[in-house]
Specification:
347 residues; 5-stranded mixed β-sheet; globular
């Protein structure tokens, strides 16, 4: 694979707790315009009055893009990539068509791309996506691959029961009991909730509810005999009651008791809370996928694919992907010839 050829996603330098950009997979959806420029199915010849059918593009569908309520017409692809710290050196690791109205949407394609990337890139550690990734998708990626998903926590307005954390209203749930937490808090009581991570709820003298984020430490992943993965994050909480700092491991993947409590752990528990410096650093890497979108728009005039039907349009996009990855190889060789430090050793 080109990414490994250029030293990206190197397993020898991969960190689970603090993944670098070379081990982070940015993923986003992109809608390309169809060569069909009208919604009409028939057209009248003004000279003869003859009614003629308008050629239809079977690949064109209605898609939502960028969280907008309006839909756009075209062919949508999910695109995943990884990059090096230096400019111009980034590799597209996979693309997948997103069918309109299939019930899975771009999030389903994100899951497929993350699972295939984990298989081909053992040094990958963190897929980064937008709010399209919900608890069910995050759970599938994390349990199947051991990669920790970085995406915005679930938001909820304050008027609808959200709590102000990190400057935004977030959805919150009561944190369910766990043996490790019971052991850590054997001699005291703390009201802990899940809101994009763990927060402690306290009541001020005037009755105001205060939510304080609990510090997250090292993240580890465990391979299970079933072939699935479990993710855990160490948490630390200074205790005003005992004067000690409690420390325990919290599961980021569903436990055996979550279903009985109706607790969607992957929806409310994330490896990185919004205020975490690692969250800000890693999620910022997702913006690199936006520059890919602009690049594709420049490759295809007016963002219009010069082909009819899904198979031909996929070939057109694959050609653009191959051009980008060929450019990445050129940049790598240029750095090597200039006696600069390349990202890794090419095969």
């Amino acid at each position: 694979m080109r990414a490994r050829e250029l030293g990206l996603a190197d397993p020898g330098t991969a960190s689970v707790t603090h993944p670098s950009c070379t081990h982070t997979l940015g993923v986003d959806g992109k809608v390309f315009n169809s060569p069909q420029r009208t919604l009409d199915t028939e057209r009248v010849d003004r000279a003869t009055g003859e009614i003629r059918p308008v050629r239809q593009d079977p690949a064109r569908g209605q898609h939502r893009e960028g969280g907008a309520s309006d839909v756009v017409l075209g062919t949508k692809f999910a695109i995943m990539s990884v990059r090096a710290p230096m400019a111009g050196l980034r590799v597209i690791t996979g693309i997948q068509h997103v069918p309109a109205g299939d019930g899975r949407g771009e999030a389903g394609a994100f899951v497929d791309l993350a699972c295939s990337a984990a298989e081909l890139l053992p040094g990958a550690r963190a897929p980064v996506g937008d709010g399209a990734l919900r608890g069910t998708h995050i759970n599938e990626i994390q349990t199947r691959t051991g990669l920790q998903v970085v995406s915005p926590p679930r938001t909820r307005s304050l008027g609808r029961g959200g709590v102000p954390i990190g400057g935004k209203g977030q959805a919150i749930k009561q944190l369910r009991p766990s043996p490790s937490r019971d052991k850590a808090f054997a001699s005291c009581v703390h009201d802990l909730r899940a809101a994009g991570g763990i927060v402690e709820r306290t009541i001020a003298a005037d009755g105001t509810e205060i939510y304080t984020e609990v510090e997250r430490g090292k993240v580890r992943r465990d391979a299970l005999a079933s072939g699935l993965w479990s993710l855990y994050a160490v948490h630390r909480l200074p205790c005003a009651q005992t004067g000690v700092t409690h420390e325990w491991s919290e599961s980021l993947t569903p436990t055996s008791t979550d279903e009985s409590y109706g607790f969607n752990r992957s929806e409310y528990m994330r490896a990185y809370q919004r205020s975490d410096p690692d969250y800000r650093r890693i999620y910022a890497m997702r913006q690199d996928t936006e520059s890919f979108n602009v690049q594709f728009e420049q490759m295809f005039y007016k963002n219009r694919l010069p082909a009819w039907g899904l198979h031909r349009q996929t070939l057109a996009v694959l050609g653009a992907v191959m051009a980008q990855n060929a450019w990445a190889l050129y940049v790598w060789h240029h750095l090597a010839e200039a006696n600069k430090e390349p990202p890794g050793a090419a095969a």
